[in-house]
């Protein structure tokens, strides 16, 4: 992504969804460089691919009705990269599953290209956290799975090979999934979703099960794909750094009930690199996310409750001379 | 390198697996040899070599050790010739070499009645009954099981009744089957079907239900319709497990064979066994029973070996 500066003054964009969190000098995450600001303006000028209006979900349990999510509003524009984060139990998985059509919503609506979502469909590709490649098919056959529904065999094979080439897995076309590493499996899963040319790619913590190094490689790899392909991405994660590194905007959810706390425009310029993890914009955004996900008051309450429940009574069980520090 | 025999689920070397596998057969065989060839281990009978003065003893007759001792005492008291004999096992426990010999001669000996079938004909007859019974059961049971495992409504409509029916012992339908299907192969096949089918539906349905649902969800997000879901995801995903189920069920079908063949006119290997037992040819009886085991195990090993080529992606098949 090239960001051409327009020389506009540094400004704080109005953000309607800021929750009433006291901002004591942490608003610097709202400060955007002119380049970043111009980029967001360009994004806002694009078509809306995914529109979520007042989306909600309630479960009926033995304890009565439980609200998993309520009042979610979101517009994702073409080729935008949006990450969703939130504490565990905030309903982020429920949200993406409703967008994919794998679960019903009980309130509001989801529109893709203006058409309401009603069940799963090939306009929304999905990559799951668990490995969901079909074990009885080779890598190539896995990628051909979607195209075969509409195309002939040779055309589907050609499309599959093109995508395997693109993700660098062409060498493994005839391997079975159980011969691949976790990272490779997720690469193939991405290709399998993208070969259908979906309007939006939904990713549900796709790198959650990978080790740290593979994960970092997969993040850059995903950005490379996103840069070169006309695809809009909604990405769920619980890793704050991952969210900032990948996203244009970060949707922050809170738990009990699941609601949108804030939608943050990430001020870190593109193209992104690992060096930016220590940049001022990155750290400012990181501080803001930390505060939203682990608010000081709530954190203190949790710690107090935990201390109440678990009272360690430590006595020395080793020789006095045998000191580790 | 010393193998850690008692490590929990410790993997064994190919050599150790082979040795232990042979050992699993050698152990019972060794026990049988011990009882058969070492006189003082059991041998509760005496085989008469010379009747001596005992008027009802005959050469080659088997008598209880106590009776032999008593008669020997009687003869000694009466001053007659003493009987002679050697310790022996009862007629129903032939020695291994006798059974091995019977295994060979059973195939080469003309049947005692002229119109009776040869042993290999009896065996083929049994295999045909098993095959037909299992095939009929599978044609109904496998599709029904897959549907039950996939669609909850079909499962609820069928499974409660099947759960009830599977407790009814198949042989209990023997008289009914004869009344409906006659006395020849019909009722025998029916018993094998009744014995296999109901378990089959439940086992297959259970296997299909264990399919990882996320595979189905993944397929749905790739834009596949409901009907194709069954043929392109559910069935291929379950295939190696269904194949394993079928192997186990085939084993069950074999266990129903003997009961089934007693229904109506006795036939096949069962006819051979009962016939030989009537003449007290127990070596032949053992040989015939062992033959069922070899056929069953041989078939299963063959199917397991075939699975490696049918399901190259399946690790469990590769291990078998």
Characterization of the model:
The complex is a heterodimer of chains A (325) and B (320). Chain A is an alpha/beta fold. Helix content of chain A is 33%, strand content 21%. Chain A folds into two domains: 27-123 and 201-308, P-loop containing nucleotide triphosphate hydrolases (Rossmann fold), CATH 3.40.50.300; 127-197, no CATH class. Chain A has helices at 34-45, 92-100, 139-144, 153-166, 182-194, 212-228, 240-246, 280-293, 296-309, and strands at residues 48-61, 64-77, 81-85, 107-112, 115-116, 124-127, 200-204, 232-236, 249-254, 259-265. A six-stranded mixed sheet of chain A has the order 6-7-8-3-9-10, with helices on both faces. Chain A has a four-stranded antiparallel sheet with strand order 2-1-4-5. The model of chain B has no long low-confidence stretch (mean pLDDT 90). Chain B folds into two domains: 45-88; 108-319, MetI-like fold, CATH 1.10.3720. A three-stranded antiparallel sheet of chain B has the order 2-1-3. With 320 residues, chain B is mainly alpha-helical. Chain A binds chain B through residues 100-102, 119-122, 124-126, 128, 130, 132, 134-137, 145-146, 149, 176-178, 192-193, 196, 202, and chain B through 212, 214-215, 217-225, 228, 232-233, 236-237, 239, 311-315.
Outline:
The complex is a heterodimer of chains A (325) and B (320). Chain A is an alpha/beta fold and 325 residues long.
Spans where pLDDT lies below 50 across 5 or more residues of chain A: 1-25
| Dominant shape of chain A | globular
CATH superfamily of the largest domain in chain B, please? Answer: MetI-like
**Low-confidence spans of chain B:** none
